[in-house]
Each structure stands twice: as structure tokens, then as C-alpha cells.
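Materials and Methods. Structural model of TrmB family transcriptional regulator. The 267-residue sequence of TrmB family transcriptional regulator from Paenibacillus xylanilyticus was retrieved and submitted for structure prediction as follows.
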Amino acid sequence: MDQLLHHLNHLGFTEMESKIMVELARQGSASGYEVAKRLGVSRSNVYSTLQRLSQRGFLRCSAGEPAKYSVLKPEEMTRMISGQMRASLDYVQSSMPQHEPEKPVFYNIEGDKNVFDNLSRELADAKHEIVVDIWREEAELLQDHLKRAEDRGVRLLWSCDGGEGMLDQPAPWPGLPLYGNGSGRKFSIVVDRRWCMLGMRGESCATQAVVTEHPVMTGLLLNHFAQELVLYELEQDMGEELESRYGRRFGQLSARYWSVSAGGDQG
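The predicted structure was written out as C-alpha cells:
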């Protein structure tokens, strides 16, 4: 009995409504006076509750004096409740104001699986362009994802260090050295000029990445990528002249502005 009342309360019926419906289900039908007497409560409370339940469609009221009330069969009652709840749920779902939860401006991802799962989802959703600056080891892991994106018409721009270029294209000139003690391979990916990942991976360091849609970071990565490709094109066109003036791979030129000491400090 208590368990039944509990579930009726959970479905939105008050304690008085629940007790009256259970009593009517037990007795079959009864007048308001009879229900009040059996429950030991005031007739005014019972009459108002009977009227409310009847208006909601859960009770049937017979003609005559005194009026007799009976509750719906359990299967009829539950079907009615289910329909009303379904209608309410559908209305809430369609009418509730929606606001996209704010993503953090920058967030970190750690671990090979987490990084590549996150990256593969973005590559699969790419619609216009993917810019990739990556090492050969990571390029092999992403090659299928990039090929599928290219096959569906996404523009693919890439730079691959540490070996020949993938997809039968030449590898651009590698970028300038980065500061820090980490011995991992740095990589960056920009998708549709709105989402980017900047990370590091290697045998001697944990795989980790920073993800953001901040336009400043996206712009910086795109500018860096463009500069690398411009320098690569210059090297292809003016290789001997550039090498004679600045050294192979622009080592002499870059050394004027960048140097990495054993401790990672700028020289």
C-alpha cells in the first residue's frame, strides 16, 4: 500500500488524491461521504479532491443522488498518464530555450587515444580546409583520415617533417627550433580556419595537446604555416643563391634570431 502511494505521488498525484484512487479501486465505487468515512478525513477535502480528479479524467461519476465515483481501470489510467507525460516531455523538448554550453577558450588533452580521437572527429567533420604541420610518424597515423577528407572535397594543405611528404607530395622546409627541454615532435592542425590543435608527441614524452577555437591562435598557426611554405618555395626557386648567402636550410639566417642552449634559454 505504501509503495503504491509512493509511486502515485511520484507520478504527480497528491497524497489525498492517491489515497482516494486506491480506496475507490479497492471498493469499486463510492460516494464522497463513504470515501471520507473510510479514510477518516473531512468530507470537504474529499469532495474537492473527487471533483478535481473527475475533471482530470481519472474518475467516472455516475448520475443520481448521491453521486457515485469510480476510478479508471489500471491499464486505462497508466495509458492516460503515459500519454500526458509524453506530451509534456515533447513540448518541453521542443519549446525549452536552448543555449550552447560555453566551451573553455583553451583546453588540454593528454594521452595518445584522447588526442587522436578528438582530432579524428574534427577531421571527419571538416567541410572546407585542413592545414596540417606534422611529422612523418604522426602523418602516418592520420593519413587515412586526411585522404578521406580530401576525397570528399576538403582542401588539404600540409607540411610534413622527418621524411618524404605523404600523399606523394614534397616535404616543405622544417620550421625554426622551439624553446624548451621537451624532446617530443611538435604538430599543429587547423580545421576550417576555426578550430586548431597544437601538440607534442614522442617516445620520451607524454602525448599532449592544446585545443582552441580562439581566432588569435588560429591566425598565428595559419600565418606560421604560410611563412614556412613561402620559405620553402623560395628555397626551391633560389636554392643555390640562398645557400651561398645564408647557409643550407637558412641556418645562418635563423641563428641571428633563434638559438637553443642546453638549458633552453635564449642566447
